[in-house]
Amino acid sequence: MAETNIIFDDRFTVSDVDKDGKKFDRVSRIIAQSNNLSMSLTLDIANELYPLVEGDIFSLAIARNLVPEEAGADDEEEEAAAGGAKRVKKELWRSEDQGLAADYEYVMFGKIYKFDDSGKGGENAETTAYFSFGGLLMALKGSFRHLANVVVGENVYLLMRK
After folding, report:
1. Main localisation, per the record (predicted)?
2. Distance CA 79, CA 65 (A)
């Protein structure tokens, strides 16, 4: 059974853009609410590359790698047999075929650095996963069941599109 590349996927609506309290000229901190999964998002974003304003709706996905599901499922065994699975996946961003990134407008590479599951209360307890994308930070807060695939220390891609 193949494991999915996508750790999290949902649509968000921007509720606030913090431009006044920021320390960097080209970075905004956005606050957004999930449309389907009742999640809350705080994200530092390069506002010159991907400007967002209050009320904008965007899709956000977090993926383990950029290999599309179709290619990953069929080609994984062949690549592993050839001994090049890791190399092919890691260098996909350099090739003309951008994989999942081709379907999105804004992509960042980073790491999951903290998982706060301090909220007690069973399955519906509030949980927060923290990510760092080269200093641009993200906090994704909500039900544990939507963050069950988050693993601290794992490298991930953040993919966004309007």
Report:
1. nucleus
2. 15
